[in-house]
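Problem: given the chain below (277 residues), write out its structure.
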Amino acid sequence: MELVHSGKVRDLYADGDDIILVASDRVSVYDVILPTPIPDKGKILTQLSLWWFGQLADVVPNHVVSGSDVPPEWAGRAIRCRRLEMIPVECIARGYLAGLGLTSYRESGTISGVPLPPGLTEGAKLPGPVFTPTTKASTGHDEPLSYDETAAVAGPETAAALKRITLEIYRRGADLAAERGVIIADTKLEFGRAPDGSIVLADEVLTSDSSRFWPASSWTPGRPQHSLDKQFLRDWSATLDWDRTPPGPAIPGDIADATRARYVDVYERLTGESWKG
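Solution.
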């Protein structure tokens, strides 16, 4: 097999007509890879993604060929995937006000050009989920895109399809998670095209690296929420004297353990299965 791409978290290998997508235990904060891995992180992300791909199979085709037909050294953390031509847009759906969406709203009353009602507070539920795409930068930070800019990048028909599919995945995922006591505040999705031109869901889906998860029992608008995702690590890094440029800080053992515990917690809440590692 040939390594064709190494990202912040995932490595892609070519294997004949397929791609092997391997999720490492690396973790990044503000697009900087930190030197300390989070034990089992890659396996948790992979297994949660596979579970969601199954739940969402009737919404949109996905890239999964097999979650088990992978080299044994990557068992549990790799997926055999279809080759796709990736669409250069990060598709984000937001149902609650948090993160960069909150920052944008406070500055302009909008997110990616989408106007929102006045008077919303941190963590507030939006009147309805909104599509707030960004660029898909190979280096540096992704930048917000308006819908018109998305149409210019991907084409009008593709932009309309991306918006429709992204919001449907979010709604379906949010409803299912709500039944299990979890709020999905927002999520990021990636899509590619199959050889026949159809749009295919790719990469990861509704994981703790790509989404904000909050326990519904403790949700209180107007303040930061208890996170079951990577936000915990971002919040820790914000307490440091670090300018968010490489090299990233080492993660203390207790912070790494607490991060892993959140990943395991939300996996178990959503799937109803105990994490066996």
